[in-house]
């Protein structure tokens, strides 16, 4: 059977792909971040200076793969045409979408197509999860393609908690101190306060709840004198839009913990398949002495277990609280391909410098929850 590649480079064509895109997603091992909704809303908010370069891989007329890509016309302040993932740096896991069993065929078709195309100088595929079945194939195929310069760079660590069938089976896996903390403060809150856990289930409540979440998230980071992306209006607009889109398709999970009618903690996440994705949290530092963030997280973890989720994904970032939950680390990777050795060497040096600066900043931003 003939495998062909088709390019999608117009916004209307991207929009029209919605159903086929998500049908393929359901046949793949890709994450919630490869959903059409996430990719579409990202494009609406961050498309300036970029051009769509989505590659559809077809086996005869059957869609077996999507490479959700864009072209940028500068990179690291260099005048280079770079092909990279839709979703950019704010996406925890970037990846191709491949029908199960067709991963190798999809990756090979994409790289065969790219190798023979003009109009790009570097391919920068960032934040590919070490758990992705495409990663091993990508590394192998990239090394096999001749005439190109290749680099593999380690990026962020991500953490996943594999959920047991029952909450009582999880508790013994936690440290004695952390287990005591959760149990003690949960009992104390329910004893001393009017506790209300709100999971947003009404479309009309999403914006108000997201605004409350933004406020709690910023308040925590302001108290630590640490900058946050949520100060950006564009970033807030993205999350307001994606929360609406995900609510429509049953992927939004937004929780607020109220004590005596006051919101003191929030947890903003996504659901897809058997995985719960904990994207961001926030809490009022005035209530930190009652461990409100840990209590809310424990109640959400307990609910995900009850609902049959298999994984609670804490996503990128080496915050200490993720380890307290007994989550397992995995490495995200960045695959860089360039047509010329000089271009590859220069980009790698700049990326290495950029990565070092980011790691130093992140090391200074770590805090205990």
How would you portray this structure in words?
This protein has 369 residues and is α+β, with helices and mostly antiparallel strands. The protein has helices spanning 11-16, 18-26, 36-46, 103-115, 133-144, 167-170, 176-192, 206-223, 233-248, 292-306, 320-324, 341-365; strands spanning 3-8, 50-52, 54-59, 62-67, 69-72, 82-85, 97-98, 122-129, 149-162, 195-199, 252-259, 262-272, 275-283, 311-316, 328-338. It is built from 12 helices and 15 strands. The strands form 2 sheets. It has an 11-stranded mixed sheet with strand order 2-5-6-8-15-9-14-13-12-11-10, sandwiched between helices. Strands 1-3-4-7 form a 4-stranded antiparallel sheet, with helices on both faces. The longest helix has 25 residues, at 341-365.
Features of the shown structure:
369 residues, alpha+beta, eleven-stranded mixed beta sheet, four-stranded antiparallel beta sheet, 15 strands
SSE order and pairing:
Blueprint lengths: L2 E6 L2 H6 L1 H9 L9 H11 L3 E3 L1 E6 L2 E6 L1 E4 L9 E4 L11 E2 L4 H13 L6 E8 L3 H12 L4 E14 L4 H4 L5 H17 L2 E5 L6 H18 L9 H16 L3 E8 L2 E11 L2 E9 L8 H15 L4 E6 L3 H5 L3 E11 L2 H25 L4
Parallel strand pairs: 6-8, 13-14
Antiparallel strand pairs: 1-3, 2-5, 3-4, 4-7, 5-6, 8-15, 9-14, 9-15, 10-11, 11-12, 12-13
Helix pairs in contact: 3-9, 4-5, 7-10, 8-9
């Amino acid at each position: 059977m003939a495998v062909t590649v088709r390019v999608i480079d117009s916004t209307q064509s991207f929009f029209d792909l919605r159903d086929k895109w998500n049908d393929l997603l359901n046949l793949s091992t890709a994450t919630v971040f490869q959903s059409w909704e996430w990719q579409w809303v990202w494009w609406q908010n961050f498309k300036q200076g970029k051009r769509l370069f989505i590659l559809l891989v077809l086996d005869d007329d059957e869609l077996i793969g999507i490479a959700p890509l864009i072209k940028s016309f500068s990179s690291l302040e260099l005048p280079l045409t770079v092909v990279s993932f839709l979703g950019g740096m704010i996406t925890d896991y970037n990846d191709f979408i491949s029908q199960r069993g067709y991963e190798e065929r999809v990756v090979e078709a994409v790289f065969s197509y790219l190798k023979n195309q003009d109009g790009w100088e570097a391919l920068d595929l960032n934040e590919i999860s070490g758990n992705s079945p495409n990663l091993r194939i990508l590394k192998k195929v990239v090394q096999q393609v001749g005439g190109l310069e290749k680099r593999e760079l380690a990026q962020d660590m991500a953490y996943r908690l594999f959920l047991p069938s029952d909450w009582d089976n999880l508790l013994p896996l936690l440290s004695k101190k952390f287990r005591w903390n959760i149990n003690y403060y949960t009992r104390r809150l329910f004893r001393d306060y009017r506790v209300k856990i709100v999971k947003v289930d009404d479309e009309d409540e999403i914006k108000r709840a997201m605004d409350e979440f933004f406020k709690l998230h910023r308040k925590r980071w302001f108290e630590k004198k640490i900058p946050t992306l949520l100060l950006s209006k564009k970033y807030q607009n993205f999350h307001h839009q994606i929360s609406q889109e995900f609510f429509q398709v049953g992927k939004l999970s937004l929780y607020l913990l109220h004590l005596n009618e006051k919101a003191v903690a929030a947890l903003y996440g996504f659901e897809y398949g058997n995985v719960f994705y904990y994207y961001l949290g926030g809490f009022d530092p005035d209530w930190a002495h009652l461990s409100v963030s840990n209590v809310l997280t424990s109640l959400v973890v307990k609910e995900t277990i009850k609902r049959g989720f298999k994984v609670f994904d804490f996503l990128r970032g080496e915050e200490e609280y993720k380890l307290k939950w007994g989550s397992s680390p995995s490495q995200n990777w960045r695959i860089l391909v360039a047509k010329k050795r000089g271009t590859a060497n220069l980009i790698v040096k700049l990326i290495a410098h950029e990565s070092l600066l980011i790691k130093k900043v992140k090391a200074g931003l770590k805090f205990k929850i």
